[in-house]
């Protein structure tokens, strides 16, 4: 096993760790350690909320979560010899859980604190705990299903340059200002509350806390992409914006459905990840990988081959209004259709919703040009159920 | 082989066929034939443009296509004993091509006549011809790739009730009226030009032509969903809105990438399709399949397992503006990123664009809740190329 | 579709066809037609018994089959410019059935006339008819299962040189002579009875009939390999032994289980096959493909991913005798174990036996070195059954 | 993670462990621990040779291995309430390696000490060391390949009853006596040398050592089946022959090719395995699972989908002699054909041989009835090579 280069005490919050991680993106957050290209190493990760959610049957911790704290990350790792313009090649060698932490959680955020994809339909907080047994997971809160996880980091990314950071802050602030009082906010701009910034202290801490971008959204640096197939055996090519690349990782998921629609999230867990880094010098220009990372998924995702698929189109379900080729609405309709179907099997709406956010369901953009309706689908693997779910 | 119940002469346009098909949705279009539940039958289909595009090297026919004519459909089929409230179960048994028509086309529509997903980047008409050899296709216009088709009907649907039709026309007209002069139009409302309405004639023809919804968008009845995995061996459950269900089909694709992003389209072809129909009485209510069809994909899609995946986020590529969780922009960025990469392999932008619209690429909604950025991906099977396309 | 270069009238036996095929291997059987490398073409094929088995419910035709007639082949095809020492590259583009012949058969041969892998357990003739519906098949004689076929030619091969033919005849005769009266025979040496030899006539016919090797076994030239994954989209590399290679094909199977254990056989059918030929000059030496063909399977086999697997070891089931690393006995035991299990689901032994020979079951050699027991397995896809077959 | 119920010190041989395991099958070997049905637990395992093979570049340890010591097993586990006639249900939850032991070995045994499937062609000892990086492995001794392991226990089984044990000893002795001086032996009958028998001591040890069957072959109790797909997520149904079932496990493989043809073996490793046990009361009779275990493979094997396949027939490669439907010879020929091909890529014969025994190659029995030739194939995943290996 690769050497553990980043170690945590899960009983403590991030800022009390020997090497505190970070929950903001900023080029000036000091590296936790450095490695040469070609090195494999292990990093331990807190769950994305920094341990706020407990293995019990009440959703109150979901309801009351402090979202200023998310997502806490492990790192950054400084990769020697890597410079802006290079591609950082990252292999996800393996991911696992801790013996004392063989479970994960999923939750629906309350509309007033986080919200979710279907928050207008499911505005109340809910929670499900998922137990792990080897490659499989089950939940006492969503009975009748068992599936193999596609374990992956929801969030992995490199540090932005100051220039790129500034661009992020500007464009997100501009969006936020179009409706500054909206709940949930259109964007979460820099906020010093609950910031964790590695070993920074004093004035430097205050400056970076005021400038650092939230770790919630995915951006040019990768970040919180929540791509369920970025699993064991995957190789990622990151554009590099700062010296050493400064790679960070967190938000481990035992499994997630495409879209991570409940927002909280996949099956969220603490755990460890084994990474190996390498570099392609000058690769950003050579391969035109400049805007976002590119990756090759690993070969060991579960072999589910039997799906029941729900379609949706871009007509608003509440007022029947026609939208123009809107994939969000189409996917929302597909998910709502799936939930209505799952309810005929005996699930509550909340259970069905959490199932779509945790099981390896596939969310597709099928038709995005057939004016005026986009068509999206959500595909549910039938083999995860303990009974036949087909219409008869 | 099932008996051919709907036969075409491909050298003639739809209205000159013995049983003319239709290119509008309307409950009053007479059935071409009727069958009992449990029956398998073959239907022949013209390509979606009714033969306007030719196997040659000029894109002029794409540029000048008459879109008032699309999509021409075969049918409708009246299924005996089926009534509103039932589910019509349709098995796609097989799909094939005609000996004299062993090719298909893909095209980028010009911005002024149809447009496409990336029309601001690729406003000029382009065309690629794809030759079929058994399960494989290649194109003289997009060299270096060969892939197995996931053959499917881009469009299959049942007739709307008058009430449902009215709802469609109202909501689409309302959208159109928000920007009535837009090119391309926000929606295409009923238009008697180039209408084909089966055997209707005279005043009845005129009435239906004036009321009939365009066949371009997918809707509650299925229709032009352009779902690439609705291929051989699939079973679809349609909500039924009129007596006999009145099933129609067309727009056959030898293959299509998720999104069908060039709009024209997948690999468009004429061909035949073998269907089998059955009924679940009262199934709409029982299974809550009321808003859109549900389906189970067939088991014989190509086993491509090695992908290179491109990410995109919801920041506009032209002005850098941040959009709120917008899957359309995120998927657009993913596609543009893929095209830039493919250009480093020697393809023109247009070739790369048409490749994304024809090869079995997978378009995913990965994260749709990480405020403010949606994350979408487009995954390209690497095994379709005649060389190694990975970054090195 | 490729041009049909070899056409049959299925109502007539092979020797009455315009171009009679052949049921013996001999270099002097004249080519039915010739093509250039790079050409695609269609050939029609009679079922392997030349039409002896009928779509009815009696196994008498299986019991009384004339095995001197099998396997009748279409061809040979002379490929211009191909010479001994080359590799003949054959692409299997597509395979299909005839409208009037949408069914196939499987049978257990009687011990006295053909026998089978489990002939000591199932010595009586039996038959099952399998109906095709698109990619799927079902049988009125083996209820409760439906599966997608992995359609393939059981037999495809090139002509032997005279020298190679002589080697075959010698080694097979030597084996036969070790127990000349055995039933079934240890080997079937040349036998003029029921020979079909293309257009040969008179003395030349008599000579070749006396020398020609039976088409039953697989050999260096390919031949009756009965490899179920040699399906649509596969590419085969044949060593070439005579000028023009002289490729022949037949014994089409809609589906077959590994081992083809009932001998008759897979789901045997008449049909057509589209092939494309090419050449690698001098390839036999360059790639050391000299002893047997090599191939790359196509990418569209059914995606069955859920199996129930039965093990067997090399201890004789009748007398309990230990055999040394004997894969035949181990596979026999695995099959017998599977049959006993399937009988608990309500099947007769004969039904279960025919199911193993027709469905896409996988037969593996798992351990072949663990002295003294070989371990083999037979894996049955659970998704082909209309109920849950797992132990509970 | 399940509680570790069986712990090892890898620096010591089995008999010096706190709970010594065993390397003979006998009902009287005391259980190492007991669990209730429904319990998950972890067991640690020594490699099958009990640590005789080292991570270095000389094959001398392979050459000189003491085979009287193999296979050392962890256990047995007594499962409370389980009785003869029941089925023991075993879930393989997870398998992994130790931090200090991130490598495995493969070797070709010398003809005089163990031999192998192709021992007449490769009589000398050879060794390859395989390093693990997450899900992948590579070898400095077999360059140019990298693959994802299908990690599994080569050996897992329950204790025989005294009666069954006696049957084994009799039938194996009878075979051995047909050629008592053969090298390697036809069977390895009980041999007290190097026996490890758990906590047994004194006269009881001596008795059991004299009676206990070797753990090398697979038998009715499962045992050394070397089934590469019995990997993570699999469920096995064992017939039960003694009270408590007495389950043992060992011979962990990071990966193995079908047949394990070099005999030593797959990629052999020490490691841990998480199991969960349950029972189906009276299941042996109900499901007729009496002769051998039955299993359902897990869903996370690597998604290799592109294979190059080599055929072989049952003609002896040395003397050209025809054998009757002999799968062993056919598979041997297929493997030899594959090796000759791999040599054209630059591998030595020994490297190619070890690659076939370690990579996830599939060994099939394709045709076992086409008198007189069996046809077997070995399929090599092309995606494991760092270059294109197809003939051109
Ligand atoms: Zn996330
Ligand atoms: Zn998450
Ligand atoms: Zn379409
Ligand atoms: Zn189309
Ligand atoms: Zn055959
Ligand atoms: Zn056959
Ligand atoms: Zn073993
Ligand atoms: Zn082993």
UniProtKB/TrEMBL annotation, chains A, B, C, D:
InterPro entries: FmdA_AmdA (IPR004304), FormamaseFmdA (IPR054833)
Superkingdom: Bacteria
Pfam families in alphabetical order: FmdA_AmdA
GO molecular function term, any single one: hydrolase activity, acting on carbon-nitrogen (but not peptide) bonds, in linear amides
Matches recorded under PANTHER family: FORMAMIDASE C869.04-RELATED
Name recorded for this polypeptide: Formamidase
Upper taxonomic lineage: Bacteria, Bacillati, Bacillota, Bacilli, Bacillales
């Amino acid at each position: 096993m690769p050497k553990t280069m980043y170690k945590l005490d899960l009983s403590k919050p991030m800022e009390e760790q020997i090497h505190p991680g970070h929950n903001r993106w900023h080029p000036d957050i000091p590296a936790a350690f450095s490695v040469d290209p070609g090195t494999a190493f292990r990093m331990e990760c807190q769950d994305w909320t920094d341990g706020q959610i407990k293995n019990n049957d009440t959703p109150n911790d979901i309801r009351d979560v402090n979202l200023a704290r998310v997502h806490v990350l492990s790192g950054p790792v400084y990769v020697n010899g890597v410079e802006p313009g290079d591609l950082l090649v990252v292999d996800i060698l393996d991911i696992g859980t801790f013996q004392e932490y063989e479970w994960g959680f999923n939750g629906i955020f309350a509309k007033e604190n986080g919200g979710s994809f279907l928050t207008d339909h499911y505005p109340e907080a809910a929670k499900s705990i998922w137990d792990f047994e080897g490659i499989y997971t089950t939940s006492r809160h969503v009975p009748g299903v068992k599936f193999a996880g596609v374990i992956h980091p929801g969030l992995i990314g490199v540090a932005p340059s100051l220039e790129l950071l500034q661009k992020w802050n500007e464009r997100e602030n501009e969006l936020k200002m179009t409706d500054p009082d909206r709940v949930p906010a259109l964007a979460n701009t820099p906020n010093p509350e609950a910031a964790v910034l590695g070993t920074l202290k004093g004035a430097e801490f205050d400056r970076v806390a005021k400038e650092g971008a939230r770790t919630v959204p995915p951006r040019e640096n990768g970040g919180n992409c929540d791509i369920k197939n970025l699993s064991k055996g995957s190789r990622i090519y990151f554009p590099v914006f700062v010296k050493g690349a400064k790679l960070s990782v967190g938000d481990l998921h035992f499994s997630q459905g495409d879209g991570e629609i409940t927002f909280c999230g996949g099956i969220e867990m603490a755990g460890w990840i084994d990474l190996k880094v390498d570099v392609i010098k000058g690769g950003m220009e050579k391969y035109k990988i400049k805007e976002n990372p590119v990756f090759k998924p690993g070969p060991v995702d579960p072999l589910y081959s039997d799906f029941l698929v729900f379609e949706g189109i871009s007509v608003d379900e509440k007022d029947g209004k026609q939208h123009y080729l809107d994939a969000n609405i189409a996917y929302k309709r597909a998910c709502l259709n799936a939930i209505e179907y799952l309810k005929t099997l005996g699930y509550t709406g909340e259970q069905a919703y959490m199932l779509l956010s945790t099981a390896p369901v596939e969310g597709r953009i099928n038709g995005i040009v057939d004016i005026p309706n986009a068509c999206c689908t959500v595909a549910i693997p039938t083999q995860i159920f303990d009974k036949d779910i087909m219409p008869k």
